[in-house]
């Protein structure tokens, strides 16, 4: 059985646009023999029942997330495909701690650089998603990912990298000033900021903050790497899973050619050894550069060092479900009902990890929630109907006005056609006279 | 002729329906009279809370705690508060604890400290600046963060263990009712409607926090990550008394203690505590917690 690794598709000459996918690809290319796995750039989380990428498929088993996939590979191969087997006590502890460190810190920086920095998002990241996603996902998924990245980095308070947030802020201030009645709305000067002036301002204001955040990540990495070949181990011991995570996250900081390359600049100046290490590991894991065409028209001698296999093109059925899901999840009341349904299904499924009792409570909870929503809808409809009925009973809509309106309609109907014809003929005359 | 006639005939019913609609939406006279009386009473503005500032002779640390616990200086039940409470104890700064909540804090989060000696206009110190303030105090030696592992292992606490904690405390329903509701929700109000809302908000906040980094909440993954994190911390501690081979406990010890104490504390009333099972596998972390508990 060949293992299938489903990932987000390639971008920026890297085999994937997402950090965890890159890390998992690196792990596979270092640990698993090349004929035992294939790489599928499906770029659609709904292929896996867990709704997450990267996802590993082995027959009917699906495993998602880097950590779970690594654990699964170790069990599946009886310890043969395990990069962390030979680590000593402190190395093992370091492996765990640095993994958590890289996952939390580097993810924030990559989010800031690729998604929150508006110029980079609109000029590079968004088009990159456009080229790997199929219709209609290219309209549905990128805004979701963009919003998630903004939420993850919200606590850093670097929103002035985000032009959209600045615009919203300014509108709030504008309307607040109008509401306060201090200035007539016409007199409020709205400075027209060009992208360059904003860029200049934001980079000055944020320079200190960004400096601190990047330093927090790169300094410990530079120090632990030292003169070794790998982050934790020397040449003879081979890489560990931390190296895979590091190359996954750091190559997305180093490689993309962005409009506002503050992250790459910081990395090059603060961590020259880590930069060289990332470049070296990247070429070893991902080859010399992945192109979007490698992933979608995979042939054995396409020049890529990764075992690409072309993803299935979307069938009509999956397209329909995607469209329906996107539509339903954005409709206010339907959204709640669907969320409760999902909760119930999850609770009732045998492998939800809940005890029987918990599952039952959860599913009854979900059912009752759904009932609540339906009852609410019924109340609302009933209330409106009662109001209209009452108004009719009170004689708010009088029959005379109804008749009057009807008469008006008739007369208008009679009048209008002649008018229309008139204006049409006028137009025709005008056109003719024009010739 | 025809349009004029229509206008005349249409005049009366039109006006009637408009005035009828106006009647319909106009405020009835008795209700209007009631509203005209408002505001019934205008109270003078509250005085600033002076009593705390005037006779304050010691530093006051505002944390999540109950009145009895505050009097005896017992550990707070909030990890973030306990971390700073423990740190100030470890570095030998005298202070009183006072029960408080997030709304009272100038930064919107507890803990914060009102220093005894007015540093600059008596400003409260939020927890982000507490360490800097503590180092400026007399008899407090500066802690060296030269160890590269400090920040790295701190990320284990700030993410892996915190996420598992969030799940155990807020999203595990039995624990939420018996622990979080009792500690955070019930003391803040007696109104049952507000309690329900507050509880729902707390749970939703925890859920949002966990869903920031993943598509769905995978309980077994959270527990496995916490297990790994405890193992790494246990290895880092080794046979030493304190982390990073210090002779006295420092900030990192306080951060670890904040979680290990609350996880192992019998007084919290956990209904289901998987984290304690995972933690008890590491004898040195349990002993570390017991050693530090003597400071309280």
Main β-sheet, spatial strand arrangement of chain A: 4-3-1-2-5
Q: Order of helices and strands of chain A, N to C?
A: EHEEEHHHHHHHHHHEHHHH
Helix coverage percent of chain A: 55-70%
Assembly state here? heterodimer
In the residues of chain A, how many domains can be counted? 2
Got a strand count of chain B? Answer: 4
N- and C-termini, Cα separation of chain A = 76 Å
What structural class should be given to the helix and strand makeup of chain B?
mainly alpha
| Low-pLDDT sequence parts of chain A | 191-199, 401-435
Radius of gyration of chain B: 29 Å
* Arithmetic mean of pLDDT of chain B: 82
- Please give the largest β-sheet of chain B: 4 strands, mixed
Number of helices of chain B: 13
Based on CA atoms alone, the radius of gyration of chain A comes out at: 30 Å
> How are the strands of the biggest sheet of chain B laid out side by side?
2-1-3-4
Level of helix content of chain B?
A: 55-70%
Q: Give the DSSP E fraction of chain B (strand runs of 2 or more residues).
A: 5-15%
How many distinct beta strands of chain A? 5
Mean pLDDT of chain A: 77
- Name the helix and strand elements of chain B from N-terminus to C-terminus, one letter apiece: HHHEHHEEEHHHHHHHH
Please outline what is shown here:
With 435 residues, chain A is mostly helical. Chain A has helices spanning 19-31, 66-76, 89-116, 118-132, 137-153, 163-180, 195-225, 241-254, 262-270, 272-286, 292-296, 316-329, 332-348, 356-394, 399-434; strands spanning 3-6, 37-40, 55-58, 61-64, 308-309.
SSE topology:
The complex is a heterodimer of chains A (435) and B (296).
Chain A: E1 3-6, H1 19-31, E2 37-40, E3 55-58, E4 61-64, H2 66-76, H3 89-116, H4 118-132, H5 137-153, H6 163-180, H7 195-225, H8 241-254, H9 262-270, H10 272-286, H11 292-296, E5 308-309, H12 316-329, H13 332-348, H14 356-394, H15 399-434
Parallel strand pairs in A: 1-2, 2-5
Antiparallel strand pairs in A: 1-3, 3-4
Chain B: H1 2-25, H2 29-36, H3 51-54, E1 59-63, H4 67-71, H5 79-90, E2 95-99, E3 112-114, E4 125-126, H6 130-136, H7 149-171, H8 173-185, H9 192-211, H10 219-237, H11 251-264, H12 274-280, H13 283-293
Parallel strand pairs in B: 1-2
Antiparallel strand pairs in B: 1-3, 3-4
